[in-house]
Amino acid sequence: MRNIIPYLILIVSMSAASCSKELDFDYHDIDPITVIEASLTGEGAEVSITLTTPMDEPIDRTRLTDASVTLTDISGNTSSLLLPDAEGLYRGAYAGVSGHIYELKVERDGHTFTAQCEMSMPVEITGMEFNWIKMPYDHVAVLQVEFTDNPATEGDCYWVRVYRNGEAYMWTAVTDNLSSGGEIAEVMMTSRMNLDKEDEKTALRDGDIVTASVAKISRDMCDYLEAISNDSNGPAMFSGDFCLGYFLAAPLAKSSVIFHPDEIPYY
Amino acid sequence: MKKYTKFVYTSVLSVAAITATAAEPSDSLAAGQLDELIVTGQSARHRLDDVRLGAEQLELSQMAKVPMLFGENDLIKSITLMPGVHGEGDGAGGFEVRGGTSSQNLIQLDGITLYNPSHVMGIFSTFNDNAISRAILFKGPIPAHYGGATSSVLETALAPGDMQSFHASGTIGILAAKAMAAGPIVKDRLSFAVTARRSYVDAFLQMVPQYRSTVMNFYDITARLRYIPRPGDLLDMSFIVSHDNMAIKRLMGMYWGNIGGSVNWVTRRGDNLTFTTTGAVSEYAPDMKMTMMDTDQRIKEYIRDFSLSEKTKLNITDLHTLEMGLRSELLRVKSAEMLINESRMTDIRSGWQNAVWINYDGSFADRLALAAGARLDIFTSLSGDVFHKFSAHDETAPDFSSRTYVSAQPRISVKYDISTLHSLKAGFGISTQHIHAIRSSATSFPFDRYALTSATVRPERALQYGVAYAGMTEEGDYDWSAEAYFKTLDHVYDYKDGRTMFSRINLESIILGGRGRSYGLELMARKNTGRLTGWVSYTLSHTQTKIEGINDGRWYNASNDRRHDFKITAIFTLTDRWDLSGSWSYSSGQPLTAPDVKYELDGTTCYYYSARNSYRTPPTHRLDLSAIYTHSGKKLTYQWAFGVYNAYCRYNPYIVYFEDDPSKPSGTRAVQQALFGLVPSVSYTLKF
Lengths: 267, 688
Prior knowledge:
heterodimer, A: 267 residues, mainly beta, 4-stranded antiparallel β-sheet, 2 helices, 46% strand, B: 688 residues, 25-stranded antiparallel β-sheet, 5-stranded mixed β-sheet, disordered N terminus
């Protein structure tokens, strides 16, 4: 409901909009903030540390490699120091164990950032399909990703990420309010049919490989993702010094389809 | 998508005022009520002599000549031309008074409380100008007989039907059609007045293949029956329904509207004693749904209001009046019901509001006038299964225990006449409000969620102080005023950072309460006579909010803060048939929460906001022009109205957002979306 109904409201309101123009904006200067993206899956651990970029500069994706990064399996009582590789990513080879609690500690430049996460149970993607759905302005390819949800528990949340030819495309956070019969079907509006009018960032072309990745996440992580998708900051995911980002311990379920617009049924 | 707003529409201007003044009842009791029925304006003398700070009786006949969007005469849009009042902006239908939000206004029609009274994203208000006979706006300390609002009160009345003769009018336009019929059922005893309006933009959309699935219409109907059972008694029954439909067939829909009715019984005993009993019910019910592939989602809300009031007015002497009254009101609020596939989540609660009030109006020693009143407000959040309902997934239930809040609310205005042409006024008032609109955006939206005062949510409370000076020329050709105010608010609520109306069903778990403050200076000058009339107003103001947990607990500019607000309106009578008018308005930019830095998460650009509302949008300004041709015959009157809204096509900010733009060196651009460009209009009205 979060990502669909507001999007549809925006369609209606912005469809009546008469004109758009770019604004000259005088942004405020603030000190750079550390951004930590950390994930532990069944294949291993990966941590990226960057800094925020001022709005009037191109995003600086330079990864910082002068930090001390420690991953601790609190449940298994083991600890590992992660080291940066050639890409600047701190990696660890061992796989996370569902049900174990893990702690990530990053120390850099006199600051310490700590987060804990329980490795969630795996989910399974049971289906991926596109439908063309008629909007006032054009047909839009709506992607439905179906995956398993444990009906015995309530309040479960999931992070659904979609990639186009291996590159990040879009994502959304979903709760089990959508669950029906132990399955969740999440719909996401993707590319419009008329590619001449579609932004290159969201255009899907014949032959594009569309991959969905689903991970079960904590409620806090869900709130964080919801906040940043609603143009807000959200709760801090790390304790200690302030930073942005997250630590996610979850096995990933993945599935792919090839986008063939002529084969997509009309809803 | 085609631009709906570029269609040429016809509209009505001024029919309502003309109809209302022509519909004066001639019965002696009704004549005794003339001061309530037929006053459609407020002379300079009346403005000077009015003891109440910030009271504006709207001159409907004059407002009818002011150019409006699509040429549709709109009461709410007209109100925004007053000092200290501004609209929420294009695309929003509410008005904001002295730093308050639109949800802090009490809007009543014959005692029926209306919520979010607007159509089609605020393009029109619920008020059909054909139907309204009177509108009074109280900006300053609110009179004691009103409760439930911390910012202002807009009291409106439906025009009753003529007791002697039948009248009707009809207007057809490209955007909407409306009709009015009024007259006697039994002469001198029973009359009726009915108005109806319906838009039919969707009828035109059906002609365009790609929009055949689009539904976009609204309608509203008002009706008033007046019955005079015997001399000294008057019974009015009023009804209103308004509804909006915006949908894409078989996919999604948004529906909202008000429905309500009231019975007003006025009985006079002697020349000095009047009793008024009012019973009213109303419901505001938005509904939003979407069906897409295997997903069905729906969110429903309502506000239900049942009230019974009694007012007694005693004219002690010609100079002294005493009023007192009681009111009991039952409120039931469904802040949301979310139906998502098989899951169902609900949050409903009820409250009971009672009040007793007294007000004195009097003059002393030729120079001093006083309006002093007090209201005792008692609100109880109702416990018990019949009064509340809560169901959710993995959420803690809110506290449904009963709690009673008692508030003593003095309301005082005093006026001192320096001379017959100059006066000073001062006032103070306390008011409370128990329905809190929690907004995800800066402007009203049919689907704001509403929190009811409870064991956790405290009543919103406002203290307002004001001083004013008013003056006029000898004959009232010109009058002017300067008014300063200071207002503090307790227990204003807002969403926690990152939360929206969909975040949780338990609304109280995602909101925080805090304080607000607002202060300002309003200046106004009017020319009332001659071929050229009009007014100029300027407001300098500042409005802030402070809530622990938001903006690090620091004061921040409220979303409705507008530092400067300037308006000029001119109406020129060219000939006895032609009226020309123009209005120009300027308002400072709206506070905006914009990002300061950006970063990437999983390859997607994200933004970080260091402070709330620390930026501003570009200012809003607009020129509107109109020309009205009126031909009054013996039996029929017809009117052509031509208008241009936003004559120099200023694209005022409606939405501001930030997005990636690879063509820019920074990779980011800020985009402003405007709603309206230049909008011409033509209308034709026929009445008899």
